[in-house]
Amino acid sequence: MLILGIESSCDETSASVVKDGREMLSCVVATQIATHALYGGVVPEIASRAHTEAISGVVSEALYKAGVALGEIDAMAVTYAPGLIGALLTGLSFAKGLAYSSGKPLIPVHHIRGHVAANYLVHPDLKPPFYALVVSGGHTSLMKVGSYTEYALLGRARDDAAGEAFDKAARMLGLPYPGGAAMDKLASEGDPTSVKFTSATVHGSEYDFSFSGLKTAVINYVHTAQMRGETLDEREKADIAASFTGALIYTIVTRLDKLLTYNQKLPVVLAGGVAANSHLRRAVCDMCASHGVSCFIPPLSLCGDNAAMIASQGYYEFLSGVRAPLDQNAYATLGV
Ligand code: KG4
Ligand code: ZN
Q1: 153 exposure class (CB count in 10 Å sphere: 0-12, 13-18, 19+)
Q2: Same CATH fold, 127-297 and 2-118+302-319?
Q3: Which positions ≥6 away from 148 have C-beta within 8 Å?
Q4: Where are the domains positioned within the chain?
Q5: What CA dihedral angle connects 83, 85, 87 and 90, to 10 degrees?
Q6: What's the rounded Cα separation, in Å, for the pair 151 and 148?
Q7: CA–CA separation, 248 vs 282, rounded Å?
Protein backbone atom coordinates (compact mmCIF):
# COMPACT_ATOMS: atom_id res chain seq x y z
CA MET A 1 0.00 0.00 0.00
CA LEU A 2 1.39 3.42 -0.99
CA ILE A 3 0.73 6.36 1.31
CA LEU A 4 1.52 9.99 0.55
CA GLY A 5 2.37 11.74 3.83
CA ILE A 6 2.15 15.50 4.38
CA GLU A 7 3.62 17.37 7.38
CA SER A 8 3.38 21.12 8.08
CA SER A 9 2.93 21.45 11.86
CA CYS A 10 5.80 23.88 12.49
CA ASP A 11 8.59 25.19 10.28
CA GLU A 12 9.16 22.31 7.87
CA THR A 13 7.00 21.62 4.81
CA SER A 14 7.40 17.94 3.98
CA ALA A 15 5.93 15.27 1.74
CA SER A 16 6.87 11.61 1.42
CA VAL A 17 5.79 8.36 -0.20
CA VAL A 18 6.00 5.29 2.04
CA LYS A 19 5.19 1.69 1.12
CA ASP A 20 3.39 -0.52 3.65
CA GLY A 21 4.34 1.76 6.53
CA ARG A 22 7.98 0.70 6.51
CA GLU A 23 9.69 1.46 3.21
CA MET A 24 10.47 5.10 2.47
CA LEU A 25 10.39 5.70 -1.29
CA SER A 26 10.96 9.45 -1.01
CA CYS A 27 11.00 12.21 1.57
CA VAL A 28 11.26 15.90 0.69
CA VAL A 29 11.69 18.52 3.43
CA ALA A 30 11.60 22.28 2.74
CA THR A 31 12.84 23.99 5.87
CA GLN A 32 11.99 27.58 6.85
CA ILE A 33 14.74 27.78 9.47
CA ALA A 34 16.72 30.49 7.66
CA THR A 35 13.64 32.76 7.60
CA HIS A 36 12.74 32.26 11.28
CA ALA A 37 16.38 32.55 12.38
CA LEU A 38 16.12 36.28 11.55
CA TYR A 39 13.60 36.60 14.41
CA GLY A 40 15.24 34.16 16.84
CA GLY A 41 12.28 31.75 16.74
CA VAL A 42 9.35 30.55 14.66
CA VAL A 43 6.92 33.33 13.64
CA PRO A 44 3.57 31.50 13.16
CA GLU A 45 2.10 33.77 10.49
CA ILE A 46 5.28 33.62 8.41
CA ALA A 47 5.33 29.83 8.82
CA SER A 48 1.76 29.49 7.46
CA ARG A 49 2.55 31.63 4.43
CA ALA A 50 5.79 29.77 3.71
CA HIS A 51 3.95 26.41 3.89
CA THR A 52 1.38 27.71 1.41
CA GLU A 53 4.14 28.71 -1.01
CA ALA A 54 6.08 25.46 -0.69
CA ILE A 55 3.53 22.70 -0.36
CA SER A 56 2.53 22.13 -3.96
CA GLY A 57 6.14 21.87 -5.16
CA VAL A 58 7.18 19.67 -2.22
CA VAL A 59 4.36 17.17 -2.88
CA SER A 60 5.16 17.04 -6.63
CA GLU A 61 8.83 16.46 -5.87
CA ALA A 62 8.06 13.65 -3.38
CA LEU A 63 5.92 11.86 -5.99
CA TYR A 64 8.58 12.40 -8.67
CA LYS A 65 11.43 11.10 -6.48
CA ALA A 66 9.38 8.03 -5.53
CA GLY A 67 8.65 7.39 -9.22
CA VAL A 68 4.95 7.24 -8.41
CA ALA A 69 1.99 9.02 -10.05
CA LEU A 70 -0.73 10.53 -7.87
CA GLY A 71 -3.16 7.95 -9.26
CA GLU A 72 -1.01 5.12 -7.83
CA ILE A 73 -1.23 6.48 -4.28
CA ASP A 74 -3.69 4.51 -2.12
CA ALA A 75 -4.25 7.06 0.66
CA MET A 76 -3.07 10.44 1.98
CA ALA A 77 -1.87 10.84 5.58
CA VAL A 78 -1.59 14.29 7.11
CA THR A 79 -0.58 15.81 10.45
CA TYR A 80 -3.69 17.37 12.04
CA ALA A 81 -2.37 17.99 15.60
CA PRO A 82 -0.59 19.28 17.61
CA GLY A 83 1.29 22.28 16.20
CA LEU A 84 0.87 25.85 14.99
CA ILE A 85 -2.74 26.08 13.92
CA GLY A 86 -2.23 28.07 10.71
CA ALA A 87 0.68 25.83 9.69
CA LEU A 88 -1.34 22.66 10.36
CA LEU A 89 -4.33 23.99 8.41
CA THR A 90 -2.19 24.60 5.33
CA GLY A 91 -1.11 20.95 5.09
CA LEU A 92 -4.51 19.61 6.15
CA SER A 93 -6.41 21.71 3.59
CA PHE A 94 -3.99 20.73 0.83
CA ALA A 95 -4.30 17.03 1.73
CA LYS A 96 -8.10 17.28 1.84
CA GLY A 97 -8.11 18.79 -1.65
CA LEU A 98 -5.84 16.04 -2.99
CA ALA A 99 -7.84 13.27 -1.34
CA TYR A 100 -11.19 14.66 -2.52
CA SER A 101 -10.08 15.28 -6.09
CA SER A 102 -8.42 11.86 -6.42
CA GLY A 103 -11.12 9.95 -4.53
CA LYS A 104 -8.57 8.53 -2.04
CA PRO A 105 -9.00 8.15 1.73
CA LEU A 106 -7.52 10.77 4.05
CA ILE A 107 -5.89 9.66 7.33
CA PRO A 108 -5.36 12.13 10.20
CA VAL A 109 -2.06 11.57 12.05
CA HIS A 110 -1.00 12.88 15.47
CA HIS A 111 2.45 14.51 15.17
CA ILE A 112 3.89 12.80 18.27
CA ARG A 113 2.78 9.36 17.05
CA GLY A 114 4.51 10.29 13.79
CA HIS A 115 7.82 10.99 15.55
CA VAL A 116 7.65 7.53 17.15
CA ALA A 117 6.87 5.94 13.76
CA ALA A 118 10.10 7.38 12.28
CA ASN A 119 11.65 4.34 13.94
CA TYR A 120 9.49 1.90 11.91
CA LEU A 121 11.20 3.16 8.74
CA VAL A 122 14.65 2.06 9.88
CA HIS A 123 14.08 -0.74 12.41
CA PRO A 124 12.22 -3.58 10.66
CA ASP A 125 12.16 -5.64 13.87
CA LEU A 126 10.49 -2.91 15.97
CA LYS A 127 6.88 -3.62 16.97
CA PRO A 128 4.74 -2.61 19.95
CA PRO A 129 4.55 -2.94 22.86
CA PHE A 130 7.34 -0.54 23.85
CA TYR A 131 7.96 2.67 25.77
CA ALA A 132 8.40 5.82 23.67
CA LEU A 133 10.23 8.97 24.65
CA VAL A 134 9.55 11.86 22.26
CA VAL A 135 11.84 14.82 22.89
CA SER A 136 11.35 17.73 20.51
CA GLY A 137 11.08 21.49 20.22
CA GLY A 138 7.44 21.43 21.30
CA HIS A 139 7.09 18.24 23.36
CA THR A 140 8.70 15.99 25.91
CA SER A 141 6.46 12.94 26.33
CA LEU A 142 6.98 9.54 27.86
CA MET A 143 4.41 7.02 26.64
CA LYS A 144 3.56 3.35 26.58
CA VAL A 145 2.76 2.23 23.06
CA GLY A 146 0.53 -0.81 23.56
CA SER A 147 -0.19 -1.33 19.86
CA TYR A 148 0.48 0.76 16.74
CA THR A 149 -2.54 2.92 17.58
CA GLU A 150 -2.86 2.59 21.37
CA TYR A 151 -0.92 5.23 23.27
CA ALA A 152 -0.92 5.81 27.03
CA LEU A 153 0.73 9.00 28.26
CA LEU A 154 2.90 8.32 31.33
CA GLY A 155 4.64 11.68 31.67
CA ARG A 156 5.00 15.01 29.87
CA ALA A 157 6.71 18.39 30.14
CA ARG A 158 4.70 20.63 32.47
CA ASP A 159 6.30 23.81 31.14
CA ASP A 160 9.00 24.21 28.45
CA ALA A 161 9.81 21.28 26.19
CA ALA A 162 13.43 20.06 26.19
CA GLY A 163 14.06 21.51 22.69
CA GLU A 164 12.75 24.91 23.77
CA ALA A 165 15.17 24.87 26.72
CA PHE A 166 18.02 23.88 24.38
CA ASP A 167 17.18 26.72 21.99
CA LYS A 168 16.95 29.31 24.78
CA ALA A 169 20.21 28.19 26.44
CA ALA A 170 21.88 28.28 23.03
CA ARG A 171 20.64 31.83 22.47
CA MET A 172 22.08 32.91 25.82
CA LEU A 173 25.43 31.52 24.69
CA GLY A 174 25.27 33.51 21.45
CA LEU A 175 24.46 30.57 19.15
CA PRO A 176 22.07 31.08 16.21
CA TYR A 177 18.50 29.67 16.21
CA PRO A 178 17.72 26.80 16.48
CA GLY A 179 20.66 26.12 18.71
CA GLY A 180 20.17 22.44 19.59
CA ALA A 181 22.75 21.04 17.19
CA ALA A 182 25.33 23.74 18.01
CA MET A 183 24.80 23.11 21.75
CA ASP A 184 25.44 19.42 21.14
CA LYS A 185 28.85 20.20 19.63
CA LEU A 186 29.74 22.86 22.21
CA ALA A 187 28.77 20.53 25.09
CA SER A 188 31.24 17.92 23.78
CA GLU A 189 34.05 20.39 24.43
CA GLY A 190 33.00 21.28 27.99
CA ASP A 191 33.05 19.80 31.48
CA PRO A 192 29.52 18.74 32.57
CA THR A 193 30.48 18.96 36.26
CA SER A 194 31.68 22.57 36.12
CA VAL A 195 28.37 24.36 36.80
CA LYS A 196 25.81 22.90 39.20
CA PHE A 197 22.48 23.16 37.37
CA THR A 198 19.83 21.15 39.18
CA SER A 199 17.25 18.83 37.69
CA ALA A 200 13.65 19.55 38.76
CA THR A 201 11.05 16.99 39.76
CA VAL A 202 7.30 17.55 39.56
CA HIS A 203 5.75 16.86 42.96
CA GLY A 204 3.25 14.02 42.79
CA SER A 205 3.93 13.25 39.10
CA GLU A 206 7.00 11.06 39.01
CA TYR A 207 7.19 10.78 35.22
CA ASP A 208 6.49 14.44 34.36
CA PHE A 209 9.29 16.80 33.33
CA SER A 210 10.01 20.44 34.08
CA PHE A 211 12.71 22.32 32.18
CA SER A 212 11.80 25.97 32.71
CA GLY A 213 13.81 26.18 35.96
CA LEU A 214 16.87 24.81 34.20
CA LYS A 215 16.39 27.27 31.36
CA THR A 216 16.07 30.17 33.82
CA ALA A 217 19.17 28.96 35.69
CA VAL A 218 21.23 29.28 32.49
CA ILE A 219 19.75 32.75 31.80
CA ASN A 220 20.56 33.88 35.36
CA TYR A 221 24.07 32.44 35.20
CA VAL A 222 24.86 34.32 31.99
CA HIS A 223 23.16 37.55 33.16
CA THR A 224 25.07 37.48 36.45
CA ALA A 225 28.35 37.19 34.55
CA GLN A 226 27.28 40.07 32.27
CA MET A 227 26.33 42.29 35.23
CA ARG A 228 29.75 41.68 36.72
CA GLY A 229 31.21 42.90 33.48
CA GLU A 230 32.66 39.48 32.67
CA THR A 231 32.81 38.15 29.12
CA LEU A 232 32.36 34.42 28.85
CA ASP A 233 35.15 32.84 26.85
CA GLU A 234 34.72 29.76 24.65
CA ARG A 235 35.89 27.43 27.41
CA GLU A 236 33.29 28.79 29.87
CA LYS A 237 30.54 28.64 27.25
CA ALA A 238 31.39 25.01 26.55
CA ASP A 239 31.27 24.26 30.29
CA ILE A 240 27.82 25.88 30.58
CA ALA A 241 26.57 23.94 27.51
CA ALA A 242 27.92 20.66 28.92
CA SER A 243 26.50 21.29 32.40
CA PHE A 244 23.10 22.31 31.02
CA THR A 245 23.01 19.25 28.73
CA GLY A 246 24.03 16.99 31.60
CA ALA A 247 21.24 18.30 33.87
CA LEU A 248 18.62 18.03 31.12
CA ILE A 249 19.63 14.49 30.25
CA TYR A 250 19.71 13.53 33.92
CA THR A 251 16.08 14.66 34.19
CA ILE A 252 15.12 12.44 31.27
CA VAL A 253 17.08 9.29 32.11
CA THR A 254 16.03 9.25 35.77
CA ARG A 255 12.38 8.99 34.61
CA LEU A 256 13.36 6.17 32.30
CA ASP A 257 15.30 4.43 35.06
CA LYS A 258 12.29 4.56 37.39
CA LEU A 259 9.97 3.32 34.64
CA LEU A 260 12.16 0.34 33.81
CA THR A 261 12.83 -0.46 37.47
CA TYR A 262 9.23 -0.53 38.70
CA ASN A 263 7.32 -1.58 35.58
CA GLN A 264 7.29 -4.15 32.83
CA LYS A 265 10.64 -4.35 31.01
CA LEU A 266 9.94 -3.27 27.43
CA PRO A 267 12.10 -1.90 24.61
CA VAL A 268 12.54 1.88 24.50
CA VAL A 269 12.07 4.09 21.45
CA LEU A 270 13.60 7.57 21.41
CA ALA A 271 12.35 10.10 18.84
CA GLY A 272 11.89 13.82 18.05
CA GLY A 273 14.26 16.61 17.07
CA VAL A 274 16.24 16.45 20.34
CA ALA A 275 16.78 12.70 19.78
CA ALA A 276 19.49 13.94 17.39
CA ASN A 277 21.51 14.96 20.46
CA SER A 278 24.57 12.72 20.69
CA HIS A 279 24.76 12.93 24.50
CA LEU A 280 21.07 12.05 24.93
CA ARG A 281 21.34 9.16 22.47
CA ARG A 282 24.25 7.71 24.42
CA ALA A 283 22.64 8.21 27.84
CA VAL A 284 19.32 6.61 26.81
CA CYS A 285 21.10 3.64 25.20
CA ASP A 286 23.28 3.18 28.30
CA MET A 287 20.23 3.28 30.57
CA CYS A 288 18.45 0.70 28.39
CA ALA A 289 21.54 -1.53 28.39
CA SER A 290 21.73 -1.38 32.20
CA HIS A 291 18.13 -2.69 32.31
CA GLY A 292 18.73 -5.26 29.58
CA VAL A 293 16.16 -3.78 27.17
CA SER A 294 16.61 -2.80 23.50
CA CYS A 295 16.90 0.83 22.50
CA PHE A 296 15.67 2.15 19.14
CA ILE A 297 16.59 5.60 17.79
CA PRO A 298 16.11 6.98 14.24
CA PRO A 299 19.06 8.29 12.20
CA LEU A 300 19.56 12.07 12.48
CA SER A 301 17.73 12.61 9.16
CA LEU A 302 14.49 11.24 10.64
CA CYS A 303 14.69 12.85 14.11
CA GLY A 304 13.39 16.26 12.99
CA ASP A 305 10.00 16.90 11.42
CA ASN A 306 9.41 14.97 8.21
CA ALA A 307 6.46 13.49 6.32
CA ALA A 308 7.83 9.93 6.06
CA MET A 309 7.08 9.41 9.76
CA ILE A 310 3.52 10.70 9.15
CA ALA A 311 3.01 8.31 6.21
CA SER A 312 4.37 5.42 8.30
CA GLN A 313 2.02 6.05 11.24
CA GLY A 314 -0.76 6.77 8.70
CA TYR A 315 -0.45 3.20 7.42
CA TYR A 316 -1.16 1.75 10.88
CA GLU A 317 -3.97 4.26 11.53
CA PHE A 318 -5.47 3.23 8.16
CA LEU A 319 -5.30 -0.48 9.09
CA SER A 320 -7.15 0.28 12.33
CA GLY A 321 -9.91 2.04 10.38
CA VAL A 322 -9.08 5.69 11.08
CA ARG A 323 -10.27 8.13 8.36
CA ALA A 324 -10.57 11.93 8.27
CA PRO A 325 -13.90 13.42 7.19
CA LEU A 326 -13.75 16.40 4.84
CA ASP A 327 -14.62 18.70 7.75
CA GLN A 328 -11.65 17.34 9.77
CA ASN A 329 -10.27 20.14 11.94
CA ALA A 330 -6.69 20.83 13.05
CA TYR A 331 -5.80 21.21 16.75
CA ALA A 332 -2.96 23.22 18.30
CA THR A 333 -2.96 20.90 21.32
CA LEU A 334 -4.34 17.41 21.56
CA GLY A 335 -3.60 14.40 23.76
CA VAL A 336 -1.71 11.59 22.09
O1 KG4 B 1 10.98 17.54 16.34
P2 KG4 B 1 11.43 18.88 15.90
O3 KG4 B 1 12.06 18.99 14.53
O4 KG4 B 1 10.25 19.90 15.93
C5 KG4 B 1 9.19 19.81 16.83
O6 KG4 B 1 8.26 18.97 16.61
O7 KG4 B 1 9.25 20.55 17.83
O8 KG4 B 1 12.45 19.42 17.01
C9 KG4 B 1 13.17 20.61 16.85
C10 KG4 B 1 14.05 20.81 18.09
C11 KG4 B 1 14.69 22.19 18.16
O12 KG4 B 1 14.45 22.71 19.46
C13 KG4 B 1 16.18 21.90 17.94
O14 KG4 B 1 17.05 22.82 18.58
C15 KG4 B 1 16.28 20.53 18.56
O16 KG4 B 1 15.12 19.85 18.11
N17 KG4 B 1 17.50 19.82 18.14
C18 KG4 B 1 18.48 19.43 19.01
C19 KG4 B 1 19.49 18.82 18.23
N20 KG4 B 1 19.10 18.84 16.92
C21 KG4 B 1 17.87 19.45 16.88
N22 KG4 B 1 18.56 19.56 20.34
C23 KG4 B 1 19.67 19.08 20.93
N24 KG4 B 1 20.68 18.49 20.27
C25 KG4 B 1 20.65 18.33 18.93
N26 KG4 B 1 21.64 17.73 18.28
ZN1 ZN C 1 8.15 17.44 15.67
Answers
A1: middle
A2: yes
A3: 128, 313, 316, 317, 319, 320
A4: 2-118+302-319, 127-297
A5: 130
A6: 8
A7: 14
Of 29, 36, 133, 136, the residue with max ligand 1 atoms within 8 A of its CB, to mutate for a pocket test, comes to: 136
pLDDT score at 204: 87
SS3 141: strand
Task: Give per-residue pLDDT as tens, 144-181.
Answer: 999 999 999 999 999 999 999 999 999 999 999 899 99
Instruction: Note the maximum CA span of the chain.
Output: 66
> What is the third-level CATH fold of 2-118+302-319?
Nucleotidyltransferase; domain 5 (3.30.420)
For ligand 1, the distance from its centroid to the CA atom of residue 147, given in whole angstroms, is: 26
Among protein residues, the one with the nearest Cα to ligand 1's atom 13 is 180
What is the architecture of the domain spanning 127-297?
2-Layer Sandwich (3.30)
- Which of 109, 115, 166, when mutated, tests ligand 1's pocket best, judged by the most ligand atoms within 8 Å of its CB? 166
Query: Which of these, 281, 274, 218, lies nearest to 244 by C-alpha position?
Result: 218
Question: Beta-carbon neighbour count of residue 28 at 10 Å?
Answer: 23
- pLDDT tens string 53-97: 999 999 999 999 999 999 999 999 999 999 999 999 999 999 999
| Average pLDDT rounded to a whole number, residues 6-26 | 98
Helix axes 180-188, 234-262, angle to 10 degrees: 100
Give the SS3 label for residue 7.
Answer: strand
Q: pTM of this prediction? A: 0.97
